[in-house]
Amino acid sequence: MSIRSCLVPRLLVPVLAVLGPSALSAHAAPQSRLSSAITDTDRSPVRQTIPGRVQNSADLGEAASDRTLSAVTLHFSLTASQQADLTQLLADQQNPASPHYHQWLTPQQYGARFGLSSADLSKVQTWLTSKGLKIVEVSPSQNYLTVSGNIRQVESAFSTTIHSLSDNGEQHISNVTDPQLPSPIANIVTGITGLNDFKPRSHAIVQPRFTSSVTGTHFIAPGDFYAIYDVNPLLTQNINGTGISIAIVGQTDISLSDVAAFRTASGLSANAPTVVQATGYVAGTVSGDIDESQLDVEWAGAIAPNASIKFVTVGASSSASVVNALFYAISNNVAPIISMSYGNCESAWGQSNLNTINLALQQANAQGITFISASGDSGATDCDVAPPADYGLTVDFPGSSPYATSAGGTMFNEGSATGTTAYWNSNSSSGTANAGSATGYIPEAAWNESSSTGLSSGGGGASAYFTKPSWQVGTPADSSRDVPDISLNAAANHDGYLFCSQGSCTNGFRNSAGNLNVVGGTSVVAPSLAGIFALLEQQLGGGAAGRLGNINPMIYGLAISQYSGNVFHDTTSGNNSSPCQLGTTNCPSGGSIGYNAGTGYDLATGWGTVDVAQLANKWPIVPPAGTSTGTTGAALSNTTITSSSAVCSITGQLTLSISVANGSGGTLAVPTGTVQVLVDGVAPDANSTVQLSNGTASYQLSPSATTGGHTITAVYSGDGSYASSKGTLVADFVSSTKADFALTPCTTATTVNSGATAGGIAFTVTPANGFTGPVAFTVSATSSIAANYSFSAASVNVSSGTAATTTLTITAAQSATASNSHDVHPGSRSPWYVAGSGATLAGIFLLALPRRRRFTPLVALLLSVGAFSISGCGGSSSGIRSTTSPTATNAAPGTYTLNVTATAANGLVHTSVVTLKVQ
């Protein structure tokens, strides 16, 4: 039976029931776009599909050709008119004055309006099956299809090459060239997933086997949460999640017996989750993901005890990930609320994945799905793993999407009132029900438990990709989507959450040795918020009418209303700052970078935490914020900002070239309007708004009086056709008015055989404005490498007007007594001013995809992505500040990034980067 003959009967009844008899005629069916013949001779690439981690891995050659890839998915783009229609619909669905307010679509209705035409789907399927691939799923929303096949078949069909790789001892496979499809198909594909087995990281910090009888430490059981965040008034009214489903997405199997043990220990009734096997599912548990999934399922079900928890998973699939589970949950309308505790810093995903995921989240909102995502556990420096942070201020995606609610972190801050009688009963038996001992709300600060070995604080900051949505009021005037939105306790130590995993609960929450499993991180916040909003949906009536879609307009509406003080616990102390590496992005003078909590909205905790009963009571009586689309047009735009000159050691004016282009495909007029130039979020002068001419503009940035790195942003205003978008460039300046120096070269590369010594690299310090004095040199690697570094002069003395030079020698081996300085990250990342390679989009991006539990991205020279054209947290891994080799070790083959830092006695810092290839 054809797709069309199956689809129409399924669509007709729900469309007429929800939208009325004229619904089918109100929106024409998608027009076919594959009018030309599909031939293999005319192919075009689908770009930005190669994980950046490929650049840092040892290439082991062709992958085994008979290995099966079970979930290779082609995701289809929207036309410009479809995107405009969708953007307007999403605004109308949140506007109480619109007849479309809360009129949600089913996946089939979404596909009939925004999907690929049935004829086009049929043509794509025919071509794929002709290549020997098996169709395993066609999305009910007609916007993606998934195939399986062995590597030989996939390589042949997609004209790509898939290799085996070794990355820090982990074995992986990945495409090492962008796939190519027949041009008509490539023109309608926004991304391809499933060509590699790199997985997103969890945002959980597990503290296994704590023993409270020994430490006296408090831990959070469900009864404590109910007391602290005022859930009990709803539970006593039987507002407990009955009739509401919550989808938890994961990438492992779980233990239902552990869930049952948790509920028994918590005094909760039996309510087993349902396991939903997403496309590409392979049975099995993944050790690095099992704790994450257990806590997500257990705590979502703890906050909404009678809700139906649906765990959507790909199991132990090698090529499918939690992202596949997310796509499945959306396209099959599994639940009105989805919680995801996985993510990575924005630049690590790559534009293709961002485009694909963000578009899926728009679909979720159109279907009335609320999507909640953890904000990350590396504070304001989400690309980093361990201190000192190297890669500047970054935020976590998918939480930074305007279509997601970003869940941030707090920690308890009792002040001097630390006695058990102040906020806690002496034991849970004399406290609240459900194993709790907390007596009520406990004051909070921004969560930050970072140590010398790991970053552990709530993610937050300004997006480098997404402009500020119209509903995001009361936030900094930075032209950016800011995160987080709201927070809850995320501490692992003060105080962590109890959970059951891997048989840890044999006697209540304890194991046979009397120990407890305790967890923290924004991973706990996301499912807990999912439980809270399940309670709210039940109170609002449940069913389609009770769905909320994107809850952010209402969160911000409440925050600026007269009820803000009732609904939110404003967190005004603490920070999410990270110690930073001297001379790196946003850290020219060392110290730390991040954001302080403060009155009202802040980039550490958002609006703070919630009083659940007050949230439920006030929700129906406050209008949402920002009921417009927030842009004059809806077609996608891409903004890029570049410079023809070097973006480091800048001593004069910097000429910026800004380009705004159609990002939707098809034929549209050239973007018009204006571009606002910002330096570190502030307009540099009164003339920093420039007019586009034929889609481009030029701006002369005057020399900065402040030395070091600065973030330059171009924010496109949008016009009648196009949505706003933004592009970012980071440049390092030498002061034009004060004594300073330039370090050259600012980037360089060298190749060396493992165990050998590379040729020397000369670095020159050139004084400016009368600078004199000593300049000391250090070198640090941003990934683990067995190497020795030495300078011909560890410090040079600069005389007035005279440059000084030193030479760096690199040996790709480490002696038995040598130590590497700097933190050891689980992967190589390069500073902001390193240009890309063949894996980049026109040499702009150098991006890495995630590693298990902790992602390690390469930071881009230039981040330039349209605000609406981009679609698609902390593991317990620790960095190591110093390692000593027990025996002589040669450096493993791979590509590494070294930071060469020159520091003057007065604190001036400039940094150069060396790309070291070991072969």
UniProtKB/TrEMBL annotation:
Signal peptide limits: 1-28
Residue span, Peptidase S53 domain: 219-622
Cofactor or coenzyme needed: Ca(2+)
GO biological process, one term: proteolysis
Keywords: Calcium, Hydrolase, Metal-binding, Protease, Serine protease, Signal, Zymogen
Record InterPro entries: Big_3_5 (IPR032109), Ig-like_fold (IPR013783), Peptidase_S8/S53_dom_sf (IPR036852), S53_propep (IPR015366), Sedolisin_dom (IPR030400), Tripeptidyl-peptidase_I (IPR050819)
An annotated Gene Ontology molecular function: tripeptidyl-peptidase activity
Family according to the record: Belongs to the peptidase S8 family.
Descriptive protein name: Ig-like domain-containing protein
Taxonomic source organism: Edaphobacter modestus
